[in-house]
Each structure stands twice: as C-alpha cells, then as structure tokens.
Specification:
With about 325 residues, this protein is of the alpha/beta class. Helix content is about 50%, strand content about 15%. It folds into two domains: about 230 residues, Spore Coat Polysaccharide Biosynthesis Protein SpsA, Chain A; about 70 residues. It has a seven-stranded mixed sheet with strand order 4-3-2-5-7-6-8, with helices on both faces. Strands 1-9 form a two-stranded antiparallel sheet. InterPro entries: Glyco_trans_2-like, Glycosyltransferase_2, Nucleotide-diphossugar_trans.
Length: about 325
C-alpha cells in the first residue's frame, strides 16, 4: 500500500525591520516555534544597531534593503520571495507570532486572499494617544472614500495568498504601504477578511518609528493619490465642485449689480468667475475620461491577479486526508 500525502503550502514569514535589535530575535524564534516549516526572512532597512546580527543568530535569512521606508522594503520582499502563503508582521514584538497559524488557517478555510489581524488594545501602544486618534480618523476616511472592507487599515500583521502578492503594485515608499494594500483589495474586490488580535506594547527601550504629523501627512497625500488613480470621476468631480462654487461666489455679486444697473463695472471679477467656471468644466471632462482609463487599468490588474492560482484552500481541507493507492 502506498500512501500519498498532498503537499503542504509553502509559507514565508516576512519581517521588515529598522533598528529592532531588542526584539527581532524573540520575534524570529516565536515564528519558528509557531510555524516550524516556514521560511523566515528579515529585511533590514539600513539599521544602525545589531538587528541583522540578532535576526541571523535566531535563524532567519537576512536581506538588506538600502532604500529607506517600509513601502520600499515590502516591494522588495514581494518581488524576491516565492511562496504559496505570505505572513507579514513587524519586528518590534507588538504582534504575537502564536497567532500566525490561526491567520493562515483563516486564509485557507475562508478562501480569501488577505487576512488582516486587526489590533485590540491599539490605544495602549506606548501611550501614543495621537496615533490612536489618527487611526480612527483615517479608518473612517478610508471607509468613506473606498468602502467598508476594513476597520484597521494600518495593521502590519497580515497574511496573503500568492496571487495577491504577485499582483500588488506596491507604489508607496513608507508607512502608507498598508493603505495601498487595502485599496488594492477594495478596488479589485479581492476576497478579504479580518481577525481581531491582541496588540502588545513595545518593550522598554524600543521606540516607534512613526511620526504623528509627518506620516499622517504622507497618508493623507496617499489617500488623495489613490483616489485620483482608482476613482478619478469622484476625485475630479470634487475639484470641479470647488471651482464651481468659487466661480459662483465671484459671479453672483456681478450679476446682481448688472440686474440692478445694467452695467458690469467689475470686469476683472467677471472674467475670473468665467475662468473658474471653465476650470470646473475641464475637471469634469478630465474625470470622465480618466474614469474610463482607470477602469481599463483595473481590468488589467484583475486579469493579472486571476492569472495566478488561488491559495491552497483544498490543501487546508485535506491536509489530514490521505489518498490511498494500491
């Protein structure tokens, strides 16, 4: 009797790091314990401490990415690593590696292409109340602009299928990469789900790399750019409305004066209002044209996404099942 066992999916753990020597060793060992067969890759983003040494000592494969910024690291990781399932987490110890098997199981059994570990207790992150407030504001803005697929767009603990990873363009350079990941899924209607997980505090001596105002401004800019690229009709309609209101504001007093006296004494104001009206019309036309272009780009992304095999959902359901061959 020969017993054939269906191969298990290849799992890669991806850990972008910058100056995390105090925590990265424990994080690598935690993932090694939780997923003994997974390949663990630490991408060192120009650390000035012993992050790379600690990660290598814990058993991870260490690769250096010289372009600074988490988005640049994620782009490199997704291009370099070949696997069936990808787990991405931070190297600061705030995400529990023991949750990884549950996230992987959810990806497979729910037949989705991304599982986001939403953060319980995020307001306790080293007392950064500003970050917690920003999270609520940006999550609400995301849901208004792009849909209600996600409640925590900034979570760094995610599991992806191969076809999500290989179809993700990764344009962002910094911490706004998580926003881009969420928009990619929302625009292509990729199946996703969320799982609430505990979010830990950083250990003493480990500092957050986030800047409340600088990174908040970058995320706002990314929202605007992604809106322009994915939903240009709404983006340019908003600009057209602004120009139209400005045009009306300048034109109404002139029209009122003309109705009363039959004269147009403020000709420059009238010309300005007409110019703003023309800009509003141009914005509307641009939005309509670019909306067709954006739809074509979305179709191309969708085709590329579908060109890759789905996650090994069948394997998850049959890992314990053996096919007996005489």
């Amino acid at each position: 009797m020969k017993v054939l066992t269906q191969a298990e999916p290849a799992i890669a753990v991806l850990l972008p790091c910058y100056n995390e020597e105090r925590t990265i060793g424990a994080v690598v060992r935690g993932f090694r314990e939780a997923l003994p067969k997974a390949a663990i890759h630490v991408y060192d983003n120009n650390s000035t401490d012993l992050t790379a040494l600690q990660a290598r000592a814990a058993g991870a494969t260490v690769i250096r990415e010289p372009r600074q910024g988490k988005g640049n690291v994620v782009r490199r990781m997704f291009a370099d690593i070949d696997a069936d399932i990808y787990i991405m987490a931070d190297g600061d110890g705030t995400y529990d590696p023991q949750d990884a098997p549950q996230l992987v199981n959810t990806l497979l059994t729910e037949r989705v292409d991304m599982v986001v570990g939403t953060r319980r207790g995020v307001t306790d992150d080293a007392g950064r109340a500003g970050h917690a407030f920003g999270n609520r504001i940006f999550n609400g803005l995301y849901q208004f602009l792009f849909g209600r697929d996600f409640t925590d767009i900034f979570s760094g603990y995610r599991v992806f299928s191969r076809r999500y990873v290989k179809s993700f363009p990764a344009v962002s350079g910094g911490f706004e990469i998580e926003t881009e990941m969420s928009v990619h899924a929302s625009m292509l209607r990729i199946p996703v789900c969320e799982m609430a997980l505990d979010y830990g505090r950083r250990p003493e001596g480990s500092e957050s790399k986030l800047s409340t105002y600088r990174d908040g401004a970058k995320i706002l800019w990314m929202f605007a750019m992604l809106m322009k690229e994915t939903r240009p009709a709404r983006f340019f309609a908003a600009l057209a409305a602004i120009f139209l209101l400005a045009s009306a504001g300048f034109a109404l007093p002139v029209l009122y004066e003309y109705a009363m006296t039959g004269l147009v004494p403020r000709m420059p104001t009238w010309i300005l209002s007409i110019g703003l009206l023309m800009l509003a019309m141009i914005m509307m036309v641009a939005g309509l044209i670019l909306d067709s272009v954006a739809r074509g780009r979305a179709e191309q992304k969708r085709i590329h996404y579908l060109s890759h095999a789905p996650a090994h959902a069948g394997q998850a359901e049959t890992q314990a099942r053996r096919v007996r061959v005489a």
